[in-house]
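Morning run. Coffee first, then this:
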Amino acid sequence: MASPMPAGSFLDGLRAEGLTVVEVGDWEHHNRNHKGPWGPVHGVMIHHTVTSGADRTVDICRDGYPGLPGPLCHGVITKDGTVHLVGYGRANHAGLGDDDVLRAVIAEKALPPDNEANTDGNRHFYGFECENLGDGEDPWPEAQLAAIEKAAAAVCRHHGWTERSVIGHLEWQPGKVDPRGFTMAWLRERVRDRLK
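And here it is:
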């Protein structure tokens, strides 16, 4: 059972991992907490945005769109590897997912296939949206991949979690494909090596 870290610790942890961080507006208080609790937190979820252009991507992730109000994550990782903080607290990123997957994340064990959508993921996961069209062709620059690794590691380091607490949206909710263009097994190996 982990309580979410204070916003200042989140910012400090990202910067301590060597990331360039941009604070967007009043990100520390921009959340969906009126819709339900945030926490206990158990992991970090990685997404792709299906957008292009850093400014547009950050705006969408901060403000949302009709039918899905923002914030849509805590941090947006753009192609240049910058982390833009757009919200802190409950965010509309994970949606409903598989309770068996959540139990595996908590236990830091191998993930079972996701076949249900019965558990509120927005309550339990930090979320990073990563600028990419998600078509399997849009490239993932090394600066961006390194930033994804560092951001996930920063959260894991604070909570004392291993790389098994890092999951993709596609591992949580049936029908999701993000992030597309690299495997979560590959990312978890990089996070594991960084946490050594």
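The radius of gyration is 15 Å. Good start to the day.
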